[in-house]
Amino acid sequence: MTSGPRLFSILRQGSILIASIHTALDDSQLERFREDLIDRIGRDRAKGVIIDVAALDVVDSFATRTLRGIAEMARLRGAQTVVVGIQPDVAFVIVQLGMDTGSLVTALDLEEGLTHLAATAGASIGPAR
Amino acid sequence: MTGTHDEGPRGVARSEAPRPLDGDEEALLPELVAHLREHRTKLRQEWVSRIREENLLQAMTSQEMSAETTSVYDNYVEVLETGSVAALQQYARDLSERIIPRGVETHEVVGIVLLLRDVLARSLFEKYQRDFGMLNRVLDAYEPAANRIANTVAVSFVDERERVIRQQQDSIRELSTPVLPVRERLLILPIIGVLDRERARQLTVQLLGGIRTHRAKVVVIDITGVPGMDETVANHLVQTVDASRLMGASVIITGLSPDIAQTLVTIGVDLSKMATIGDLQGGLEEAERMLGYAPSRPDGAPMP
Amino acid sequence: MAAAGRADSSRDRPSPAEITALIPLVRRIVASRVPDRATADDLVQETLTRVLAASGRVEPGMLEPYAIVTARNVVASLWRDQDRQRRNQHRVVDLRPPEAPDEDVLVQEDRQAVAEALTRLTDRERATLLAHEVSGQDTRSLAAELGSTAGAVAAQLNRTRARLRVEYLLAVERTEPPTDRCRPVLLAISGGDRRRQREVDAARHLLECDLCARLSEPLMGRGRAREADVRVPVQSDADVVAARSAAREVASGVGFPPTDLTAIATAVSEVTRNIVKFADAGEVVIEVLEEPRRGIRIVARDVGPGIPDVDRALRDGYSTYDGLGLGLPGARRLMDEFAIVSEVGRGTTVTMTKWVGER
Lengths: 129, 304, 359
Ligand SMILES: [Zn+2]
Known about the structure:
Helices cover about 45% and strands about 20% of the residues of chain A. By secondary structure, chain A is α/β, with parallel strands linked by helices. In chain A, strands 1-2-3-4-5 form a 5-stranded mixed β-sheet.
């Protein structure tokens, strides 16, 4: 799925996909991440998606729009997306940039993201039915 | 071939090729330095007594004074000898770092360096007073070097002092925007007093960092004690609330005065989308109700 | 220590420090022609060895030009070798002859180039320069002859040297510059005059003109111009990440708090992306400011179609492509100062500044 050093990973846990970005990504790498993830959501019939962005030291307009796009595409495929791990400085700058994040569901970290999905999407990391 | 003689970087390296006068002065410096080394003990003592007369460095014990003046003296002579700007700056920084915490003031440090300059100049005067031509040349060599040391020390001291003061201000500010973890996953930020831009910036850093450290899900910011804020600060506050949400925490604002509410409306904040509750007590009750439910929703309102 | 007693004759041979000082210059020249790093390093070594060997014969002021010519020739002879290798690849034995000593040729070429460059000065410039450099006449007596002041003569001499360097390089290249703007740009760079460089928009010209980009390399080393600046060439997506990392690193050295570092990196990301999306090529230059306060200035310039309506591009929601919409206004909100100059058909320059402790 990814070539060269692993820039991101997508793991399936029950009905949830956990997508972790491992390093700063440029725009084309982010696009590949989006395509791979959306592809997996369809194939795995995931109910929930967690995107861990803790490794990103910059989340600019393109990255924010990409995350929003993934969440929207996931929703159309019946999965709910939670973005976790946004760093404090990064969170503030996203807001200062003036990005519309209203539709984006966020949580502190992976654990919180899972709790959220369990409560709202009925998705869990237990065996998929 | 004709020389396109160049005054670029290499020209500088070449400037050691002496103009007659420079060479003469520079050749004198080793002799000067030897003299200052030879009479180190006597000159240093003379310097210390001048410092006492002028009531400088009173915050120091005589032991500290003795250690410090010895070190300054030796460094001073060394810098005279090498003429190295880097060494000089290093020396000045070290000196400032050591003595600023002991409450030494700028005029004192400049004062003692100038005193040392004069003590040494007088000793040179005594040594060469019979040969007036020689005396002039010695002083021509010594004075620019000594003045350069005094200037560098003064500038470095002022810089270092500013840095220390800024650090102290930072830590005071941190205290002035306390983030209180009142119970698991709940933070309270009681803000009292005027919220200026610097303090608002500090508040953001403290709050967002606090959310992560305490894994907070709900934050109550109580601004009952804030008399008012300008539009920039109000905007900053709203941005902080939004950023908190991106970190997965909901923010409740309590104690919003009509004035501040008006400012928020002026800058285009939709108050219906902000969780505002009249007083801190009500805010805490709401927070606990929210914690009873699961996670934050985009609009920061409690889950149904 | 003081050099008072040093014998004058020792000046004839450059010191190791002077040779070492040539390394960045030589490295730039070689690196701009030879992409492979290991090969480039070898060639730098080779050049320095030759310069060192010849240094006794090179006149003091000529060491740098000599190193420049040597570097070029070393690279050229590599190319010749590679050509020969290609031609001879079908033969099993290596027919490359042992390296022929071409230093005499070099010196010859060099002399010709200097002579050629001298003819391109005005008579008065040439006469003054030669009187000063060759006959050793000092600026005061020159000033008396010319009815001028010593300071003015010295300034004139500096300008003449700057021109001579430019003409020398052009002569060595055996080429005439392609545009009217080339000479003023090269002169401003050669003289190390930053104000003049801004006036003639030298940085943009270097993006547009290959010849000047190449010639500016050896010239840049001497003016103090932009030695502290960090320059990131921008062409692809990956360069956006490189530019913002570089900006973060510089800003961190300036003493910005962490939130500001993220803001600066993000703003750089936005403006750099516009270069990749819209322009053919561009660069991001990061500069540390000391006056009136500490700060950082970022200039992103590109050679491209330009923005027809800058005001509109700065409004939220404008989008020719999915992305310009927030890029520029967002970046503006993150910085303290923000300016765009754009010329349709030529390109865009975004200049943004942030001060330590603002806001
Ligand atoms: Zn050109």
